[in-house]
Amino acid sequence: MFKGLQPILYGGREVWPLVEGGKGVSATNHMSSGAWAAAGGIGTVSAVNADSYDHEGKIIPQIYRALTRRERHEELIQYAIDGAVEQVKRAYDLASGKGAININVLWEMGGAQRVLQGVLERTRGLVSGVTCGAGMPYKLSEIAAEHQVSYLPIVSSARAFRALWKRAYHKAADWLSAVVYEDPWKAGGHNGLSNAEDPLKPEDPYPRVKALRETMREGGIPDTTPIVMAGNVWFLREWDDWIDNPELGAIAFQFGTRPLLTQESPIPDAWKQRLMTLNEGDVLLHRFSPTGFYSSAVRNPFLRNLEERSERQIAFSGEAAGDHQFQLDVGVKGKSFWVTRGDLLRAREWYGHGFTVALKTPDNTLVFVTPEEMKVIRKDQADCMGCLSQCGFSSWADNDTNSTGRLADPRSFCIQKTLQDIAHGGDVEHNLMFAGHAAYRFKQDPFYSNGFVPTVKQLVDRILTGD
Question: Which of 83, 213, 219, 349 is the most buried (most CB within 10 A)?
Fold first, then answer.
């Protein structure tokens, strides 16, 4: 047992202060979270479009049959509720009364409040708590209190927590069981970097977590309410000075990337194998997500294609003005695009390389793509089912008009399509592969030598030693 690490009281029983990160679409499910809880920790079922099963136990493909986005959005919400309920019930059974089961939702997912309400209504007594990030989930505390479950907001700064506490959380303080600090530079998936922070200059998490604890104390939150450190956590021994530290109060640790590489992890074997090959720097913090948030994923051909697409981009004017004195004569029909001479020459070069279609972006620029790419982009935009509260790629918004009021952005991608595909056996090189920035350590950690893939129990036991 790693020195200083003590069980905490959570969900009415003693558990290890080790939380399984709840990863997006089907990357954590009942097998991984149930096993994590059975090992004595807090397992997390992802309630983001989770899988349901037919009577033979096969995964039900999430196929959308409705003609309108609004109707497809309703289908999506029903899939999400049914899938999460199924996953929670199975995880709870696997846990066999040990540990605890949480669910994870993204506040920026489409219909988040309805999904959360629907899942909690049908899983009474099974869910201990709800972790929630990606946005400012003001209503999280109200919904959790209504269903008498704990809530664990995910924040990336003391400032974000202060806003949540003052506006809403102080009214349901009794149900706040922990605050998750997610490192906005190092964590996998969507990251909470603010406009004031430099994506290229990671900050030391210690002072930021200390500031978060000070903010919690200002609100009268006891030091026994843990802060869960998430992002870049690998060996507990590297966090020795955080444990039993009076400046920080109670600390727990969230593991998002390491549980991907376990026998119970539901991700396909090709994804697991790829994780073992990563080098430092292979995970990219990027801004292509249709959520508008930064996010961290493996810099595979899928991500590199998005980088290259954005590089084939020029600004235009609707009339001749300033340096924009040259009419664009490739990639567009009509003569309403005025560009600089340098950009005209670049556009002609791209055209010659097969990037013969120019698509408008919301920022008065044009990106050049192949005709095949254009067909995929347009089809994916047309097939939108409203999986986000607002989507830059399709212009969907979960509001009265169902529109962001902005042009759909061809520099982005359909996140639901690619995450469903990679989770269910799609090509790992040509889909978005979320990972934390410490994923390169799979290759270096002797625990995984010779391609060893542990069970969740073996992983938790290993983590408890400090390694």
Answer: 83
Does an H or E element contain 203, and which? none
Contact 296, 191 (CB under 8 A): yes
Q: How many residues does the chain have?
A: 467
d(CA 201, CA 256): 22
Entry pTM: 0.94
Per-residue pLDDT tens over the stretch 343-376:
999 999 999 999 999 999 999 999 999 999 999 9
Spacing of C-alpha 304 from chain mean position: 19
Each residue of 83-137: pLDDT tens digit? 999 999 999 999 999 999 999 999 988 899 999 999 999 999 999 999 998 778 8
Say whether 373 sits in a helix, a strand or coil. Answer: helix
Q: What are phi and psi of 182, to 5 degrees?
A: -105, 115
Contacts of 234 (CB under 8 A, 6+ apart): 258, 438, 441, 445
Chain-centroid distance of CA 460 in Å reads 23
Token duo for residue 411: 């520099």
Residue (of 90, 116, 122, 92) closest to 11 by Cα position: 92
The answer to whether the beta carbons of residues 88 and 119 sit under 8 Å apart is: yes
Q: Within 13 A of 377's CA, how many CA atoms are on the CB side? A: 25
Report which of 259, 255, 261 is spatially closest to residue 278, judged by C-alpha positions: 261
Structural contact between residues 120 and 102, judged by C-beta atoms closer than 8 angstroms: no
Nearest Cα residue to 433 out of 307, 283, 291, 306: 283
DSSP lists the bridge partners of residue 19 as 42, 254
* Positive or negative: CA dihedral 439, 30, 109, 173: negative
More confident residue, 164 or 26: 164
Structural domains of the chain in order of their starting residue, each with its CATH number: 8-266+442-464 (3.20.20.70), 294-423 (no CATH)
